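Please decode residue identities from the backbone states below.
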């Protein structure tokens, strides 16, 4: 999980059956909540194990179903030949849309089997491209804004250059969620810091005429004290079409990879003469 968060690439956890896998369930559930791609691999009961059980070591009623409740999906392979395809499908799922953890279960009796299993090449996954009309709509709001602010969540972790370029172009203070911490330099003059629950951040959002929320659910776990009061316009950028309308309805919804959307949006915006007002607003909110 930590490696996946730091690298932006799927992490892998190999564990054994029963209590070992269930010990990993808490971490898997957190990875699901935080959109962290982790592949969990574990053995499972043999293919020809009695359906009613017989006291096999680490026997569970349905280990796959138990783990399926906390990850994107849990899949039990039924042959050695299926394993390469199952792994390729897992990586394709983790790289498409909102990243989530996946579990593969390999029956114990397959671990002793030999078979010819040709590798399956990784599926090329192009980035999600933003809608041009939505980009233009967001650009119009930001071009006319006087007091913009940017909120960056964990979904912006791969978009640091674009986030910084946008903030500097529009002179906007940048606040991050806990999962977004590190995507914007803490020593930058436009940086407010991490934490949406602070009173000063709520005041900053309330005072803004345009709020740009990138890769964040604006979730209760981030806000603590109820939803933001957003009297201005709200632009949301998220790779998940459901998340982009959850917790706060946007005036402009951009469903896209954050890095791509920010880069395209930046190109549509005129340069401002100064960022002094944004720097002052950020300083007051810190």
């Amino acid at each position: 999980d930590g490696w996946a968060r730091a690298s932006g690439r799927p992490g892998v956890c190999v564990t054994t059956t029963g209590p070992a896998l269930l010990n990993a369930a808490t971490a898997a559930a957190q990875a699901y909540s935080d959109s962290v791609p982790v592949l969990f691999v574990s053995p499972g009961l043999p293919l020809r194990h009695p359906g009613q059980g017989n006291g096999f070591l680490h026997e569970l009623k349905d280990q796959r179903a138990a783990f399926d409740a906390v990850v994107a999906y849990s899949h039990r392979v039924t042959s050695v030949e299926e394993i390469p395809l199952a792994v390729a499908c897992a990586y394709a799922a983790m790289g498409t849309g909102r990243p989530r953890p996946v579990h593969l279960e390999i029956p114990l009796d397959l671990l002793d089997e030999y078979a010819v299993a040709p590798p399956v090449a990784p599926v090329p996954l192009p980035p999600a491209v933003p809608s041009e009309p939505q980009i233009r709509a967001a650009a119009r709001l930001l071009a006319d804004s006087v007091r913009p602010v940017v909120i960056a969540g964990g979904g912006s972790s791969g978009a640091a250059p674009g986030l910084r370029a946008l903030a500097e172009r529009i002179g906007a203070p940048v606040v991050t969620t806990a999962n977004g911490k590190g995507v914007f330099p803490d020593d930058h003059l436009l940086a407010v810091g991490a934490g949406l629950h602070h009173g000063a951040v709520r005041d900053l959002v309330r005072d803004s005429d345009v709020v740009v929320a990138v890769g964040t659910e604006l979730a209760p776990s981030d806000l603590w004290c109820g939803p933001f009061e957003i009297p201005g316009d709200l632009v949301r950028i998220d790779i998940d079409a459901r998340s982009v309308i959850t917790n706060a309805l946007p005036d402009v919804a951009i469903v896209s990879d954050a890095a791509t959307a920010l880069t395209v949006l930046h190109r549509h915006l005129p340069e401002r003469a100064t960022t002094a007002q944004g720097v002052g607003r950020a300083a007051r909110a810190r």
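Observation: The domain at 132-285 is CATH 3.40.50.1220 (Rossmann fold).
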